[in-house]
Known about the structure:
The chain is mostly beta strands and 157 residues long.
Amino acid sequence: xxxxxxxxxxxxxxxxxxxxxxxxxxxxFQIVPAPDKQRNPTASEDCWRISLAPxxxxxxxxxLELHGDIVIGANSAESAGVDINLxxxxxxxxxxxxxxxxxxxxxxxxxxxxxxxxxxxxxxGLPLGVGWAYALQNNDxxxxxxxxxxxxxxxxx
Length: 157
């Protein structure tokens, strides 16, 4: 697409008869929790699709399809009891606890809850207290210890 190609109000390319529009490939989404850990399996179209990316390193993106509650943490052990292990993002070195937060998807919102982490959790720079649930919004910044992560909504059920 170049500057003269027509776009709609969302910035998406419009199809012009006789021209080719190349669609951006959709990323592969990791299904979480793993199918064998799901209590009530749901169809993919009934699930949230989100992405998580560490700030300052835009190439590393986790694309997730949420089929229930997920636990995010960091631990060098493969069986750390988490659905998403942030060790590849140097989570442990940045203060991410073994079981740091839980994401809880509902039909209309995704909530984040701190799981008594040692270094704390913040949303857009504001501390999230233990036992509090915060409804995430597109482009929120989640800080786990000293690791800043951009939260994006790809698709809502």
